[in-house]
Structures are given as structure tokens and as C-alpha cells.
Amino acid sequence: MGGVGRDVKTGMGGESLARGVLSALLDKYENSEAFRKGEPTQARIQLRFTDSLVPGYASGRLDPDDRSALHTALVTMADGGFIDLKWVKFEEGNILERVYLKWEQINDIYEYLGRTSQRQKLSAFTVEMEQWLRGLVGVGLVDSGLLGEGAGGKVRLGAGEALLDEGLAPGGEGMPNGSLPEAWRFLLNWADDILSFVHERGRIPSSLIPDEDGTRALLLRALAGLVRARGQSLPVRLFSKRELGNSKVFERQVQSHVIRLVRRYWSIGHPLDVEAPDDNATLLRELGIESGHEDITFCGPIRFRYQGTVAAEDIDASVFPYGLAIDASDVHRIAITEASISRILTIENKANYRAYVRGHRQSDELVVYLGGFASPAQRAFLRLLRNFLRGTASEVGEKSATSDMASIRELDKAGLDKGVSRADVSDQPTVFHHWGDLDYGGILILQNLRNSCWPEAMPWRMEPEVLDEYIDYAEPIDDAYRTKLTRLLESDVYAWAHPLIQRILTLGATLEQEALLLGD
After folding, report:
1. pTM over 0.85
2. Options 1.10.10, 1.20.120, 3.30.750, 1.10.150; which CATH number does 14-113 get?
3. Closest CA to 352 of 432, 434, 293, 295
4. Which of 137, 171, 180, 336 sees the fewest Cβ atoms within 10 Å?
């Protein structure tokens, strides 16, 4: 409990000291059960007169004139019905023991101090959150009304949970062409957690959202901008300038809050992923914020064109024997016109990619360099390939490269429902392989590809026997690492990786794919 926080020798004056005591009483009230319930409780709001409340009071170091003036001011407040005073026995008028807040005069006390009440702050905060939610999904999740400011005042929320489903219904007014994107629906859970906390605890949960108005407003604007982008990536400073009016404010004031929020709710927006990416830059990239320039690097026999450009001629990628790169921001402009490939191979690490395209790539293979978890742009490129190879472009009216996994699953299901096997969709069904590290991260990267763009993707040179063969280059694992791998054995989603996981646990070691170059 904070006091007035001034040096005891400066002669603060009784009025100032008394106002500090009154403000400290309100601080305690706003953190009390009485505040949360909106009604008085048996335990009265009270403070003992210690040096922490009024510096020098209990120890006798307070200036005698200030002490006398403090008593006079507090007695005046007591006469006005703000407080009750309890004096030390046989020291009435000389030494105060406790001060009690009078429930009936709380509103008048706020007015006297010129202080905005916590209820008013919570009311404004609730309205702010409701308006923000309406902007996302076109429907309010809370009743922003607060019952009175006096003895009966309570923070009250509407049926937020009941409206969650309504907010997610197709055609929400707040989002163009439908509902809140699936990957961002965790924002509704976040908002519900925040407002439930406000309702139950009577304060803004600083662990979930900044309680400082300016930072919070920036965070909400940034999140709304990310949702509106619907997967389109922007450099971080361009995004900051567009959404927040300053190119550096996102990195300085907002980025850490966004990262903490997304990590906390990652499993809701990405139910098939066991955890969020470790690297913050990768996480931001998943949200559509680029901290650096990104290219899509590949090598193989495809032809494509840039739509909407003056020179809309086909580009033959096969004439580049060691591959080429396109800007990630242009992936939505690409239209594939020919792809004579029997296999797609994604490779996690750059050294392995370079070695493979220079010495091992077959003429009918398309090799794509990932560099870790596939970025949104890389996944869009792979989905574009999938749509073309499976003959879906004509069915969906030239679906763009940003078609999401839900659309792919619907198209696959449509083909299967018609009695068309996967082999029948194309004359030469394309095999999809991924080559990565033989470790926890490599397994997650491949599963992410299966979740997001190619459900049939399978490992290549990631078999348990490869770990045996290159055991001299393997690296040991610790108990925490074992625990993470063991968790994957409990999931049928990772059944394809169970043999490798079991071998890693048996040998107590993992293998980076660069080691395979040493034996080639």
C-alpha cells in the first residue's frame, strides 16, 4: 500500500498528507472483494497509520506542524462522512491508529480527489474492447453497460460465450467475404478471457493486455491490421507505418505484446501444431510481418507468369540449371502454366539444397528450399503447385496462391466423393517429399507442411536407418528433449514419424541433415 511518497522534512501540509491517505484507501478499495461485488462486506476498508502510509508518522520523524495539520484535515474529512478515525487509546487527537473508508461516500471521495473511478475506467475499457470486436466480426461479445457507480455498482458482462459462435458465423459484417479467419479466432478467446477477468477481479489483466491506454490502443490497431491483411505479408516497418502511423512504433511498443499473446493462444489458432515456432522472427512471419527480405527459392521444370504485368510472358524455370528465386511478396501474382514434374522435394537447409540441385536433382523434380518452417509465402507457392497439378484450377476459377488448407481439403474431398482416386486426379500424380534434420524440429517442420499445404507429404532421407548410418555425427539429447519427443509418440498425427522418434530415443541422439553431405 503506497503512501504519499514525499520526504518528511519538506513540510508537505496537512491537506496534501490527508489526500494521500484518502487515495491510499481508494487503492485498497479497488482491490477488495467489496469492489468486485459492488456492495459492502463485513471487512471494512481500512489502513493502519505506519510510516509506509505517512512517512515519519509512526516513527515520530514527521514534522510536528505537518502532523497537527494532517490530524485537522482528517478530522474534517471524517466530519464530511468520507472516513472514520480510530485513535490510539488514551491518545485521542494525538496519535491515530487506523482510518476506515465510508462506503456511502465513495463517489464523493472520487470527485473530491479529482480521480477517475476504477468502475469508469473498466466501463471505458469494456466499451473499447466491444467496439474493437465489432470491427473484427460485426457483433459485440459483451454488454458494456455497468451498473451504478455507488453502493450497488457492479461490473457486468453480457453473454459473451453465447455470442462467440454468432461472431464466427459466415457473413460477419466486420470482415469482408465472411468470418474471422480460422487462424485468428483465438482473439475471441483472448477477449473473453480478458473480460471474464474484469468481471471476476475488477481490474484489467495486465498479463493479457496492456493497462496503459496508449500501448493498448496500438496493440488493438495492430491486431486488427493483421486480421485485415488475411495472410498478405508486409515488411515490419511498412506494416507499422500503415497501421500505426509510424514505421518504428510496432517494434518499439507493440511487437513484444503481440508475440506474447500469440504464443499464449497458439494452440487454439493452430490445433494441429504442438507448439509455436521458437524463433520470434518465424512467429512474426506466420502473422504476416516480415522482419527481413524473403525469397522463394526453387529449381525445376515449371513454367509460370506474373499476372497483371505488362510483360505477361511465360518464364521457363528449367533454363536455370541451379535454380532461381522470386520475391515472396509476388507469390499472389503467379500463375503456373506448365509443370512437368513427378516429385517435389522441399529441403530444410541451404547447404543441402545447393548440393542437391547441383549434383543430384533429376530432370523431372522440383526442389524447393525452405530454410526452416515453411513461411506463409512458401506454403502459398506449394498450394499453388498442388492446385495446378491436381487439376483444380479450372474447377475453382483460377484459385489464387493464397488458397488456404480448408479449401484444399474441400477440393480433395470433392474428388474423393465423386469416386476419383488421388491417382486419377492427374495422369502422373506428384510425390511430395521433405528432407530435413532428423530431430524434433525437423519432424515439426514436415508435419507443418502436412497440416498447411500437402497432407500426403512424406520424409526423405529421414528414416531411422539414416541415423544409424551417420551416428558418428549425431548430437546427444537431454531429458527435456526426450520429454518433447515422447509427447509426439502419444499423437496419431505423428504416426509417420514414430519409427524415427523411437530410434532417436533409443540412441539418445539426433542428426542435422548437413552431416549427410559429409558422407556423400
Report:
1. no
2. 1.10.10
3. 434
4. 171
